[in-house]
Design a protein that fits this description.
By secondary structure, the protein is an alpha/beta fold. The protein has helices at residues 3-6, 86-101, 128-135, 148-156, 158-162, 175-188, 201-212, 228-233, 237-258, 270-283, 296-306, 319-332, 337-350, 362-373, 380-393, 397-402, 442-451, 472-484, 503-508; strands spanning 28-29, 38-45, 55-63, 73-78, 106-111, 194-199, 217-223, 286-287, 293-294, 429-436, 455-463, 493-494. Strand 10 (429-436), helix 17 (442-451) and strand 11 (455-463) form a beta-alpha-beta unit.
Length: 526
């Protein structure tokens, strides 16, 4: 089943050329460290063109329904990435949170997509030491003339490191095969149609499922939505080059509105201070007390990471306080222990620990899936040319563009899905978008809503990556839809939360849900 044949149209229900046998799903308690949760491992076809051939294993976790008398079924969740762990998402608190939100009437099920975390994980290196040695000396993204070639050669060489005969899953990590796995899991839990809540990259999985299996949708929510046409074609940079800057402009505007309650504010304005800080760090990196060079790429990476979660913008250990300490240190030309401490606290909030065998394979899995799905240029000259386009969009554009370099010489999977994205699903898809989402911009939600022939757009007029659990208005509408399939009013826009820098707001501004839609691994290097 090639990409071209998969694109022939959703009506043919392209789940597989031959229907694979049902999987054997046997739940058992996850163990004393996760009381009340069940875990399982299932075997699925490695290649859906040959469903009776090789296999791969998927890890699952669930928080069981508590109202068994009125149980509706299972709701599958995906946290994003690609490379995010659905098992970790459920066990990390989201399972119980969502189960409670849905009145105990669903099993909340997360699974690690093929090649991710505990599902036959792709490991490009033998150990964490080997992993770290391979990337040693490379910036988060290149911004000096002496960095571009070395960075490109290192990351473009990942295909050579990752694609070998020992790890057959690497050739079958495309999202279409993950969607086919998801449909097998739907059958295994006994649901006639799928109930699904996907965030960030999970929106691409949801979109792919909706177009491959349009008749199998009961309720499908995508929140923090990628335009599937941009993602599949390798042109997500059209969004990335401007989206983060648009939200960061709001960060600066809200800081100015909060005045002295925002640590980064000065009477001259936050935007001017930011530009001064960025130019200073780009010219003269700061040396932190531990000897670490705090360079321009780290500044842009930290600012981008903060855009995932407005809840970390204010307060003494928030992004504004960190940038304030950096700006003072840059002006004085001296390191600051306080800045290093606040940065550590910020990173801890944005990147929960992942415990896995060997080493956390988030970066390996990110490229294993994205490179399987997305066609990128191969030549160094092409990457430099698009870098200019990314750079013309904003300071943030190059970080996103060069983060894809691992795919430069990594062949796409033959079974990837490239469209069309216009299926009419058996039940409406609920598409959720934030006006100021610096990771998956609002235009992605609008595009998906327009492409799908049976969908409803729910908008949030605020900031941050994804809205469920951040906006009570959005959360209530999503919960009602998952429970009863009832849709919000056409054109509904949920109001923005209050200014996150205001002290009274900051005390109360907490995501009701555990963090989802986490930053990709290339963005959060410590």
């Amino acid at each position: 089943m090639s990409a071209t044949s998969a694109a022939a149209g959703p009506s043919s229900q392209q789940g597989a050329s031959a229907r694979p046998a049902a999987v054997n799903l046997q739940w058992k308690p996850c163990g004393p460290e996760h009381p009340g949760y069940d875990c399982a491992t299932v075997t699925v076809p490695l290649d859906y063109d040959r469903p009776s051939g090789g296999t791969t294993q998927l890890a699952l976790a669930r928080f069981p329904a508590t109202d068994t008398r009125h149980r509706i079924g299972s709701v599958f969740v995906n946290p994003g990435g690609p490379g995010g762990s659905g098992v970790g998402m459920v066990l990390g608190g989201f399972g119980e949170f969502l189960g409670t939100q849905l009145d105990g009437r669903f099993d909340v099920v997360g699974f690690d997509p093929r090649g991710v975390a505990s599902s036959d994980p792709l490991h490009c290196f033998a150990s964490a030491d080997e992993f770290n040695e391979y990337f040693a000396g490379q910036p988060l993204f290149p911004y000096r003339n002496d960095q571009f070639r070395s960075y490109f050669d290192t990351y473009a060489g990942l295909g050579r490191e990752c694609l070998d005969d020992r790890q057959k899953v690497a050739a079958h990590m495309n999202t279409a095969d993950v969607a086919r796995d998801l449909d097998l899991l739907r059958r295994a839990v006994g649901d006639r149609r799928l109930t699904y809540l996907g965030f960030s990259y999970g929106s691409y999985l949801g979109n792919t499922y909706a177009n491959l299996f349009p008749n199998n949708v009961r309720a499908l929510v995508i929140d923090g939505v990628l335009d599937p046409r941009l993602w599949a074609s390798g042109w997500q940079i059209k969004s990335d080059r401007v989206a983060t800057q648009a939200e960061f402009n709001e960060f600066l505007r809200l800081c100015d509105a909060a005045r002295t309650e925002c640590a980064f504010w000065t009477p001259a304005g936050s935007a001017k201070r930011w530009e001064q800080l960025a130019r200073s760090i780009q010219r003269d990196p700061l040396e932190l007390p531990d000897g670490t060079q705090y360079t321009y790429d780290f500044l842009i990476g930290d600012a981008t990471g903060a855009m995932y979660s407005p809840e970390v913008w204010g307060g003494p250990e928030g992004a504004a306080a960190f940038f304030d300490l950096l700006a003072d240190a840059a002006l004085a030309g001296q390191p600051t222990a306080a800045a290093a401490r606040v940065r550590t606290a910020l990173m801890d909030q944005l990147t929960p620990d992942r415990e896995e065998a060997d080493y956390p394979n988030g970066l390996d899995a990110y490229y294993g899936n994205q490179c399987a799905d997305t066609q990128y240029p191969h030549s160094f000259a092409s990457w430099l040319a698009i870098d200019k386009y990314a750079r013309a969009g904003s300071r943030f554009g190059p970080l996103w563009w060069w983060g894809n370099t691992g795919c430069a010489r990594w062949p796409v999977n033959a079974d990837r899905y490239v469209g069309p994205w216009t299926a009419r699903t058996s039940s409406p898809v609920l598409v959720v978008g934030n006006f100021f989402d610096g990771v998956t911009d609002y235009a992605g939600a609008v595009a998906s809503d327009r492409l799908l022939r049976n969908s409803r757009l729910l908008s949030y007029a605020g900031w941050g990556h994804t809205a469920y659990g951040r906006s009570q208005c959005v959360t209530d509408y999503v919960d009602a839809y998952l429970l009863t399939q009832s849709l919000p009013p056409n054109g509904k826009v949920c109001p923005a939360n209050p200014n996150p820098f205001l002290t009274a707001t900051a005390r109360n501004l907490q995501r009701t849900a555990p963090l989802v839609g986490l930053p990709p691994p290339f963005l959060t290097r410590r």
